[in-house]
C-alpha cells in the first residue's frame, strides 16, 4: 500500500510490463482511482496504458503510435481539439511528447504547451510521468511553476509521497530500474 495525502491505494501488480518492478505499480493504481472518482464519465486517455490492464475500457483512448486496436490514432498536439468538459487521464505519456521518441519529431516546447492546455481546459485531470526521463520537460515543469505531487521510490518495491516535492537527485534508472520519482499532476483531491 502507498498513501498520498488522505488516500491509501494498493500497488498495482501485473505481468504486462512487470509493473512490480517499475513506476506503473503506482501510476496504474492512480489511474484506476481517477476513473472511479470521475465515474468513467467523459474520459479521454492520452496514451494507451489502462487498456493493457483492463478489458472494461469504456473511455476514448488517443495515441498516435500504440498498437492497441481501439486507439483513436490522432496527434492531439496538432489538432484544434478542446478538452472542455472532459476528464483527462494520461499515464507516462506526456514526457514523450516532443522528445522525438518512437521516430516522432522533436519539438521541445510542445509537451509543456499541451500539458498547460489540459490543465486549463479539462474538467478534471490526472497526469503522471517519471522524473528524469525527459530533462528538458522536467525543467519546464519547474520554470512554469506547474503544481505537482512527488511520489518517490524509497526502495526497490516501496514508494512514498514526498511532501517536500524536492526532485533534486532523482534520477531515471538509478538507483533502481526505470522511474525513481513520479510526478503527479491533478486537480482531484486525494
The CATH architecture category equals 3-Layer(aba) Sandwich
The percentage of residues in β strands lies in 15-25%
CATH class: Alpha Beta
Give the termini distance in whole angstroms: 15 Å
Q: Report strand order across the widest sheet.
A: 4-3-5-6-9-7-8
The residue fraction in helices comes out at 10-25%
> Could you say which structural class the secondary elements and strand pairing correspond to?
alpha/beta
Domains, number: 1
> Radius of gyration over alpha carbons?
15 Å
Tell me, what's the shape?
A: globular
Compressed to H and E, one letter per element, the order equals EEHEEEHEHEEE
Largest sheet: 7 strands, mixed
| Number of alpha- plus pi-helical segments | 3
Kindly state the number of beta strands: 9
Mean pLDDT: 94
- Low-pLDDT runs of 5+ residues are none
The CATH topology label is: Rossmann fold
Amino acid at each position: 500500500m502507498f498513501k498520498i495525502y488522505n488516500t491509501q491505494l494498493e500497488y498495482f501488480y501485473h505481468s504486462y510490463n512487470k509493473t512490480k518492478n517499475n513506476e506503473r505499480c503506482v501510476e496504474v493504481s492512480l489511474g484506476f482511482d481517477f476513473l472511479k472518482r470521475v465515474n468513467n464519465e467523459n474520459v479521454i486517455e492520452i496514451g494507451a496504458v489502462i487498456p493493457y490492464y483492463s478489458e472494461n475500457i469504456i473511455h476514448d483512448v488517443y495515441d498516435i503510435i500504440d498498437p492497441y486496436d481501439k486507439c483513436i490514432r490522432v496527434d492531439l498536439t496538432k489538432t484544434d481539439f478542446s478538452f472542455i468538459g472532459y476528464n483527462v487521464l494520461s499515464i507516462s505519456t506526456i514526457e514523450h511528447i516532443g522528445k522525438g521518441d518512437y521516430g516522432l519529431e522533436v519539438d521541445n516546447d510542445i509537451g509543456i504547451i499541451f500539458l498547460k492546455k489540459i490543465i486549463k481546459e479539462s474538467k478534471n485531470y490526472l497526469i503522471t510521468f517519471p522524473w528524469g526521463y525527459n530533462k528538458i520537460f522536467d525543467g519546464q515543469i519547474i520554470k512554469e511553476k506547474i503544481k505537482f505531487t512527488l511520489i518517490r521510490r524509497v526502495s526497490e518495491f516501496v514508494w512514498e509521497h514526498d511532501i517536500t516535492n524536492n526532485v533534486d537527485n532523482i534520477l531515471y534508472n538509478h538507483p533502481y530500474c526505470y522511474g525513481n520519482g513520479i510526478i503527479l499532476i491533478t486537480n482531484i483531491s486525494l
